[in-house]
Design brief:
Part of the 50S ribosomal subunit; part of the 5S rRNA/L5/L18/L25 subcomplex. Contacts the 5S rRNA. Binds to the 5S rRNA independently of L5 and L18. Helix content is about 15%, strand content about 40%. It is mainly beta. The chain folds into two domains: about 90 residues, Ribosomal Protein L25, Chain P (Beta Barrel), CATH 2.40.240.10; about 80 residues, Beta Complex (RNA Polymerase Alpha Subunit, Chain A, domain 2). The radius of gyration is 25 Å and the shape is elongated.
């Protein structure tokens, strides 16, 4: 049974109204699609977060707008980078009988032989485009890396497509590889070289300093 998320239709689109909605624990949003056009709505942030956790980002849910239910998927979420709260959400009305394209995460599973031997797993593709019926979209495409050794790599064609979906990406596109370990001087050797220097030399004090580095908008406040 599909998850039902309650929503209210919005009539007042002024920026001051959007701020009031957020201050009261709501999230302004839009539902769009061929059959529904473009309709502003409001949902409760707590309920939205709970729905995402239960359903996933690619899950189909029913958006109940004042008693009228529509099958939708969450197409975009905007999050305040400072407060870390959701400030806007877009819902896409889907036809459950028609295939759609959606981006799905690629997740590496297991620890590769190469990594156990000191290699480094480098992933270059973190999501793939999937074509399927809305109800058949996977939450993620998992790839087992357990048997990969140093200098081994995987491409899109190595991903296992499901029985109910296909992968749209170029089959030759690189997904991940196991890189050789970086040559690092042995710590004991480095200590031996230091001890070989003059004992009268004063230790050098080094002060390190550095700087830390700390969606598409559909409405304007």
């Amino acid at each position: 049974m599909a998850t039902v998320l309650q929503a209210d239709k919005r009539e007042d689109l002024r920026g001051s109204k959007l701020k009031r909605i957020r201050n009261q624990g709501g999230v302004p949003g839009v539902i769009y699609g061929k059959e529904v056009g473009n309709s502003p709505v409001t949902v409760e942030e707590v309920s939205l977060i709970k729905t995402i956790r239960e359903n996933g980002r690619n899950g189909v849910l029913k958006l109940d707008i004042n008693g009228n239910q529509t099958d939708v998927m969450i197409s975009e979420i905007q999050v305040d980078p400072i407060k870390n709260n959701i400030v806007h959400v877009d819902f896409y009305a889907v036809d459950m009988k028609k295939e759609i394209d959606a981006n799905v995460p690629v997740q590496a599973v297991g620890e590769s032989i190469g990594v156990k031997n000191g290699g480094v797993l480098q992933q270059s593709l973190y999501e793939v485009s999937i074509r399927a019926l809305p109800s058949d979209l996977p939450e993620a495409v998992e790839i087992d890396v357990s048997e990969l050794d140093i200098n081994d790599s995987l491409q899109v064609k190595d991903l296992v497509a499901g029985a109910n979906y296909v992968i749209n990406n170029d089959p030759e596109e690189s997904v991940l590889s196991i890189l050789p370990p970086t040559d690092v001087p042995n710590e004991q050797d480095a200590e031996g070289e230091d001890q070989g220097e003059s004992e009268e030399a004063e230790p050098e004090v080094i002060n390190e300093s550095g700087d830390e580095a700390g969606n598409k908008g559909t409405e304007e406040e």
